[in-house]
Amino acid sequence: MEHIVIIGNGISGVTLARHIRKLSDKKITIVSAETDYFFSRTALMYVYMGHMKFEHTQPYEDWFWRKNRIELVRGYVHHIDTDNKVLKINERDFLSYDKLVIATGSKPNKFGWPGQDLLGVQGLYSKQDLDALEKNAPNNDVCKRAVIVGGGLIGIELAEMLNSRHIPVTFLVRESSFWNGVLPQGESAMINRHIKNHHIDLRLSTNLKEIKSDDNGRVKSIIIEETGEEISCDVVGLTAGVSPNIDFIKSSNIETGRGVKVNRYLETNIPDVYAIGDCAEQHEAIENRRPIEAVWYTGRMMGETLAQTICGNRIQYKPGHWFNSAKFLDIEYQTYGWVFSEKSKQDHEQHFHWKHEDDTKCITVAYHKDTNEFLGINTFGIRMRHETFDTWLTEHRDIDYVMNHLIEANFDPEFYKHFEKDILSAYNNQLQTA
Amino acid sequence: MSLAKPDAQDLSKKQKLAVGMGVIGLFILVLALFNLDLPNTSIFLTVSLLLISVGTILFANDAYLTKLKGIKNDGVWFKSISSRGSLGWITGIVLTSFYVVLYFYEGLLGAGVDGAANTGLIGLFDPLSQLLSGRPASQWFVYGTLYTIAILAFGYKFILKYRHNRYEQIRTISVMFFQLAFAFLIPEFMYVMNSDLPYYDLKNVWPLNYYNFEQYRINSFINGGTIGMVMLIFGIVSIFVITPILTFKFGKRWYCSWVCGCGGLAETAGDSFRHLSDKSQSAWKIERWVIHSVLVFVVLMTTAVIYTYLGYDPDKYWLTRDVFLFSVAGFLTLIFALVMIFKRNELGKDARYGAIGYFAIIIALIAIHLFSSKTKLFIFEAETLRTSYGFLIGAIFSGVIGTGFYPIFGNRVWCRFGCPMAAILGFQQRMFSRFRITTNGGQCISCGNCSTYCEMGIDVRAYAQKGENIVRSSCVGCGICSAVCPRGVLKLENDSMKGRINPTEVLLGNDVDLMDLVNQK
Ligand SMILES: Cc1cc2nc3c(=O)[nH]c(=O)nc-3n(C[C@H](O)[C@H](O)[C@H](O)COP(=O)(O)OP(=O)(O)OC[C@H]3O[C@@H](n4cnc5c(N)ncnc54)[C@H](O)[C@@H]3O)c2cc1C
Ligand code: SF4
Ligand code: SF4
Question: Which CATH architecture has domain B432-519?
Answer without folding.
Answer: 2-Layer Sandwich (3.30)
